[in-house]
Amino acid sequence: MRLAVQEGRLIARAPQGAVTPELAEQIKAQKDALLRELQGGTGGQLAPLPEALVRLVRAATVEGSGLDRQAFLPSGYVRNLGERVLTCAALYACGFDPERQLAQLWEARGAWAA
């Protein structure tokens, strides 16, 4: 998923079906923070995601990948692991608390691999 600002509006681009109603609600809830980050930048470049996390994010967009399920992570319960992955990846890409997003992506990967 890609997030961008176009004419002052937050635009999400993703493969068809990748943005579920629940994910859309999460993005809406974080809209102001996402707009600030996208418009103002983080002041520095974020490192690309490690390949293992790139594979996880890609899998989150594929139906039947095993990510469309609930999970119990060290940070808490999530109703849909795939949505959590896409949300964390989007927030990481925006530079929003990147260390926390990486940690949550690694947790999700652990749950997915289990």
From TrEMBL:
It comes from the Bacteria. Pfam families: TubC_N. Residues 2-38 form the TubC N-terminal docking domain. InterPro entries: TubC_N, TubC_N_sf. This is TubC N-terminal docking domain-containing protein.
